[in-house]
Design goal:
The complex is a heterodimer of chains A (310) and B (799).
Chain A (H helix, E strand, L loop, with lengths): L8 E3 L4 H11 L2 E3 L5 H6 L7 E4 L9 E4 L3 E5 L11 H6 L1 H8 L4 H6 L2 H7 L5 H8 L3 E6 L2 E6 H4 E3 L2 E2 L6 E7 L6 E9 L10 E10 L6 E9 L6 E2 L1 H7 L6 H14 L7 H28 L3 H12 L1
Parallel strand pairs in A: 1-3, 2-3
Antiparallel strand pairs in A: 4-5, 5-10, 6-7, 6-10, 8-9, 11-12, 12-13, 13-14
Helix pairs in contact in A: 4-7, 9-10, 10-11
Chain B lengths: L1 E4 L20 H5 L15 E7 L5 E7 L1 H5 L3 E6 L19 H4 L12 E2 L5 E7 L2 H10 L1 E6 L6 H4 L15 E6 L7 H7 L2 E8 L12 E6 L5 E4 L5 H12 L8 E4 L16 H11 L3 E4 L2 H8 L4 E10 L5 E13 L5 H14 L6 E9 L13 H19 L3 H8 L19 H12 L1 H4 L12 E12 L10 E8 L5 E4 L9 H13 L6 E4 L17 H30 L9 E4 L2 E4 L7 E2 H9 L10 E7 L6 E12 L5 E13 L4 H21 L30 E7 L19 H14 L10 H9 L11 E2 L2 E2 L1
Parallel strand pairs in B: 1-27, 2-13, 11-12, 15-16, 19-20, 26-27
Antiparallel strand pairs in B: 2-6, 3-5, 3-7, 4-6, 8-16, 9-14, 10-11, 10-13, 14-15, 17-25, 18-19, 18-24, 21-22, 22-23, 25-26, 28-29
Helix pairs in contact in B: 10-11, 11-19, 15-16, 16-17, 18-19
The chains are: A alpha+beta (310), B alpha+beta (799).
């Protein structure tokens, strides 16, 4: 039950080195927006005595999103910062949509993208979307820098592959291949037991060949089912090599649900949950494919115009 | 909002009533300057916190407070042994009932307990110099619990051998009665009827979700007199309940109760919340104490709508005449009774009384379970009943092959017929006009495609549904329905209006000031409203049952008419001085001026008279003031008809409300803006009740699974359609300027109308609220099979 916060020490270091030093000295926990951490403190799920804010640390505010160089989001960038960015919307649509649908809007204004990913909350949306975009976490720590692919990042519920003292400096996603589209969707549900989760989310990325009539690459991710979002390779394999159409999307969705395990022992709950997952996956993949097929790319338009002018 | 005035109303010339005037507290609210209980500071104020039991059913074997008490800054740590033995009900409502009815409401709760009957029952209370110390102290209290077997389902709880939530209650049945107005012979009527239908269902435990969580300050002054500050909807009743049931050494006059700004009520504040424990701590520490709860604590322990499992049967003849109605209710009170018996009774009053019928039978059982306490909620039993009854009515219409409108119109009680609520005549009802005008505006004739029509093709299917209701404008003849108001004039001609109802966002203070302005002659913008302090205001049972406009409004009207008469009488010498010879009867006081009838050019300001009355050095000096009262001893219902169009996504089970229209029988609209806001707000709350708001308990642990606003999804503006409000105006001679109540009714129809619309769209009836996507999907997948009945529950939620 959510209670009043207990007192804690609070530091606001200016550099990454200083932050890591404090973390080591006081066994402190890093905090950015606090959207996940503060409620867990109120619920006594965590009892951290020392918090180290990253809000004033210099150099964690990278913000680069471009079709040619990919997406690079520093640890301090809040989710709502992505919303007005045209490249985020066009080339990293899955992540953009996930940020856009954060509810309530205050969360998007306070919570950082990287913080959201690091919380490892099983039902969060951003990890599902970022995983479909092949995101990787760039990490610095007492033992030096390293890169962790999001697929290896989630170890267990609320637990990541980060070692004590390590800080994620930024999230990086590779630039899209040509004729690629992505998409994110979610469905809210009711929780039925303590172990149950209250929503399902899905994200997909689809790449078409030059003629745009055959799928040559795909990512299919389902989240809020189990402790972490997962890629479903059987579904991806079912898509690759085939022409994008409704029946194919249904088959891919079926390939995912065939791998899923029920979360409760209640038949009617599971029946509807599986049905909703199928529809969600089907529509998410369909939308990604449709975006790949019909994408309107102002960057290309501009390049073509320049070439025509020459 | 559109208004249809039945009598034309062309001859009226009103200055303030019927206009969108700004409510008096709006500036403070929108600038963040309004003072709520949590904003108050006073010298020596300490903070209290409560230790809640983490088990659904447990006995405290031992409790060690020594470490908590030793923490620097802790002033008091109290446990069950420090609390009065007296038992009380959270509900203060019963104080407004006659004693024979009061005795039916069990007084069953203690401030602090050593038998914890739900997760969240209070075991200990701490007061400390600040809230963080108090919170730390809670962690230092060591409690050893003996776990008992809990019971979470009311039907399980009634079985022989089930765990007993209260030792002295057989089969956990806290309250049981036949409806007092049962009549005729339903057995015979059902046997002889041409058509019989039966429908069962249950509502969810909708949360009030008042933005301000529960909070209370208690303070004994140097003379030992107690001041309570809390967001109460009825401080006068709170005061009586606190002194008579909880602290029996205090008497009514020993308590001053102040309700500051209230962050929403919706019925939750008609109860003792944290006030008793604040008083207990204030006594123990000798200092002012504030106790506040978090949102999660509100979810776990405070209150919600009572889930009422109902079975409704209707019998009718071929021509659609309803000849028999039966309703059986089993309500789940939670761990303590609170309002659940009274809301169940009101459900029967409304459900059984809607139609003219000679054979009526109602029966209610209210059952204890080891779940959080339920309470009264806007609609007060009516919304719970409508969901089941209105679906049964539609089933009957389908069996008879009648249009739902035709069946309802044929059977509703009309003006001049017997009322069901009390043995009296129904004096005023425009329900038929609400149905007819609402249907016309909605386009029912085109949209309702008959019972035999094929369903829409494709993934998205549309349907329409309707629902009607009668609701109270105060419960005259049943509750202690009287109220009084005071008005006094200042030397500049402005006035103070002292009234009792609490402003919890509904805007009642402004509407009452409009009545006062219209009838007294003092301009609206020069009336300052004083409320919320039992030392200042006169007795009143609080803001609920849509009573404030009708009952308090009549008291204000009485008072304002008296003021108007005094002003005119005292103005006569002022006109004499100007060589104008008139009597008081020939004068008009209006809009801040007094003038001989028909000669507004001869006007003098009211301020002149008011000033000379106060600053009068002869022996005639006095301030212009008056008090007015009103006693309502009859039933004056308001009515509503609502129409909904929905679209069901048959692949995901999602329901979108495309259009919603409610036509309300209001008598007269005092402030159209406030009325429209009430209509919209209540409809949105009703949509949440219908489709989204789901209070889910884990059936193994009794834990509330969605105790935050993230997981308990209330609708936002993005989830609701444009809401059309249609006012059917026909001034009711007994109302203040003809007005009846409006605040509660709007929450009753949405779930019922939407349920009927869903059936029209997909041919499936839902037995439980909310009508969430999963349930709809499960029902659709049940093709042709018997749908699970209302009492078959799945993990706290019933289909």
């Amino acid at each position: 039950m959510g209670r009043v916060l207990l007192p804690f020490a609070y530091h606001e270091p200016k550099t990454v080195a200083e932050a890591m030093e404090l973390a080591k000295r006081d066994a402190g926990t890093y905090i950015m927006g606090g959207c996940t951490l503060v409620p867990s403190l109120r619920r006594r799920q965590r009892r951290d005595k020392c918090l180290i804010s990253l809000a004033r640390v210099e150099g964690l505010d990278d913000f680069g999103i471009h079709p040619k160089s990919g997406l690079r989001i520093g640890a301090k960038v809040v989710a709502s910062a992505l919303l007005p960015n045209i490249w985020a919307g066009k080339r990293f649509a899955a992540l953009h949509e996930a940020c856009e649908q954060l509810y309530p809007p205050h969360i998007g204004n306070m919570g950082s993208v990287v913080g959201n990913l690091c919380s490892a909350v099983p039902y969060f949306d951003l990890p599902t979307a970022a995983l479909a975009l092949d995101g990787e976490m760039h990490v610095t720590g007492p033992d030096g820098d390293r890169v962790i692919a999001l697929e290896e990042f989630y170890v267990a519920k609320f637990q990541t592959a980060l070692k004590p003292g390590e800080i994620v400096t930024h999230l990086f996603c590779q630039p899209y291949k040509p004729d690629t589209g992505s998409s994110f969707k979610k469905i809210y549900r009711s929780r039925r037991t303590i172990e149950d989760l209250h929503k399902i989310n899905a994200a997909a990325m689809v790449t078409l060949d030059e003629e745009r009539d055959r799928i040559i690459d795909a990512r299919v991710v389902l989240g809020s089912w189990g402790h972490r979002p997962n890629r479903y390779r059987a579904a991806e394999a079912a898509l690759i090599g085939n022409a994008p159409n409704f029946d194919l999307f249904v088959a891919a969705a079926e390939a995912v649900t065939a791998e899923l395990l029920p979360a409760t022992d209640m038949d009617w709950v599971e029946k509807t949950r599986f049905a909703q997952a199928r529809v969600l996956l089907r529509d998410t993949i369909a939308q990604a494919a449709s975006r790949a097929k019909s994408r309107h790319d102002p960057f290309e338009d501009a390049t073509e115009m320049l070439e025509d002018a020459r | 909002m559109k208004t249809i005035r039945l009598d034309g109303g062309d001859t009226e010339d009103l200055l303030y009533v019927g206009k969108d005037l700004q409510k008096p507290d709006v500036t403070q609210k929108v600038t963040g300057k309004a003072v709520y209980t949590d904003d108050i500071d006073m010298p020596g104020l300490t903070e209290g916190r409560l230790l809640h039991c983490p088990h659904a059913f447990a006995r405290v074997k031992s409790i060690d407070i020594s470490r908590a008490a030793a923490l620097p800054g802790v002033l008091a740590v109290l446990t069950a042994k420090d609390a009065p033995e007296a038992r009380f009900s959270r509900s203060t409502m019963a104080e407004a009932l006659p004693s024979f009815a009061f005795d039916g409401e069990r007084q069953d709760q203690r401030i602090l307990t050593d038998i914890c009957r739900y997760r969240g029952d209070c075991v200990a209370a701490v007061a400390a110099e600040d809230i963080y110390i108090a919170e730390q102290a809670l962690d230092l209290i060591e409690v050893e619990y003996e776990l008992l077997d809990p019971v979470f389902d009311p039907f399980e709880a009634m079985k022989p051998g089930a765990p007993k939530v209260h030792d002295d209650v057989q089969n956990n049945i806290a309250f049981e009665m036949d409806h007092p107005f049962n009549m005729g012979d339903t057995k015979k009527a059902f046997a002889e009827a041409d058509v019989v239908v039966e429908f069962s269902g249950v509502n969810s435990r909708q949360k009030h979700l008042h933005m301000e969580t529960d909070s209370a300050i208690a303070h004994f002054d140097e003379t030992g007199r107690l001041t309570v500050i809390s967001p109460s909807q009825g401080p006068h009743l709170g005061k009586k309940h606190l002194s008579e049931r909880v602290f029996k050494d205090l008497s009514d006059g020993d308590i001053r109760w102040i309700s500051p700004a209230i962050g929403g009520g919706f019925g939750a504040r008609l109860a003792l919340g944290l006030e008793p424990v604040a008083v207990l701590l204030a006594r123990a520490t000798g200092r002012p104490v504030r106790v506040t709860s978090t949102r999660e604590e509100d979810f776990n322990g405070y209150s919600s709508r009572t889930d009422q499992h109902q079975k409704v049967r209707l019998a009718a003849m071929k021509d659609g005449t309803v000849v028999g109605i039966e309703q059986h209710i089993v309500s789940d009170a939670g761990a303590y009774l609170s309002h659940s018996a009274t809301t169940s009774l009101v459900n029967m009053q409304k459900s059984l009384g809607l139609f003219r019928c000679d054979n009526v039978f109602g029966h209610v059982k209210v059952v204890y379970t080891n779940t959080p306490v339920t309470a009264g909620f806007r609609g007060y039993g009516n919304a719970e009943g409508a969901f089941v009854l209105q679906q049964a009515i539609d089933m009957l219409a389908e069996k008879l092959g009648m249009d739902p409108i035709e069946l309802r119109s044929k059977n509703i009680r009309k003006e001049g017929e017997q009322s069901f609520f009390l043995p009296c005549k129904l004096e005023h009802s425009k329900l038929q006009e609400c149905i007819d005008e609402g249907a016309k505006e909605f386009g029912w004739a085109e949209k309702f495609r008959g019972w035999d029509r094929p369903r829409d093709e494709g993934r998205f299917k549309r349907g329409v549904g309707m629902s009607i209701l009668n609701h109270a404008s105060g419960a005259g003849g049943f509750l202690l329905e009287h109220s009084s108001a005071i008005m006094k004039l200042q030397a500049d001609g402005s006035a103070n209006l002292v009234i009792s109802p609490c402003e919890m966002g509904q805007g009642i203070l402004g509407a009452l000031a409009q009545v006062a302005a219209e009838l007294s002659g003092v301009p609206y913008e020069r009336i300052r409203v004083v409320t919320g302090d039992t030392d200042v205001t006169l007795f009143d049972i609080g803001s609920h049952a849509s009573r404030s406009m009708f009952v308090v409004g009549n008291a204000v009207a009485d008072c304002a008419r008296k003021i108007n008469a005094i002003i005119r009488e005292r103005a006569v010498p002022h006109f004499e001085k100007r060589q104008i010879h008139v009597t008081a009867d020939q004068l008009v006081a209006r809009g801040g001026e007094i003038y001989p009838e028909g000669q507004p050019d001869k006007a003098i300001p009211i301020g002149e008279v008011a000033h000379d009355e106060i600053y009068n050095f002869t022996d005639a000096g006095s301030q212009i003031s008056a008090s007015g009262s009103y006693l309502s001893n009859s039933h004056h219902p308001n009515h509503q008809a609502a129409f909904a169009e929905v679209e069901v996504d048959t692949e995901t089970g999602y329901v979108s409300i495309i259009r919603y229209l409610a036509a309300h029988d209001i008598g007269r609209t005092i402030n159209p803006l406030l009325v429209e806001s009430q209509m919209q707000g209540s409809a949105v709350q009703g949509f949440g009740f219908a489709l989204k708001e789901d209070f889910v308990l884990d059936q193994k642990t009794g834990e509330v699974l969605n105790d935050t606003l993230l997981t308990y999804t209330a609708p936002t503006v993005m989830d609701v359609p444009e809401i059309d409000a249609l006012m059917i105006e026909d001034p009711f001679e007994k109302g203040p300027l003809g007005a009846k109540g409006v605040g509660e009714a709007g929450v009753v129809n949405p779930a019922a109308a939407v349920a009927n619309a869903i059936y029209d769209a997909i041919g499936v009836r839902l037995h439980s609220l909310p009508m969430s996507p999963e349930k709809i999907l499960a029902m659709l997948q049940n093709d042709g099979e018997e749908h699970p009945a209302g009492s078959s529950h799945v993990s706290g939620q019933r289909l």
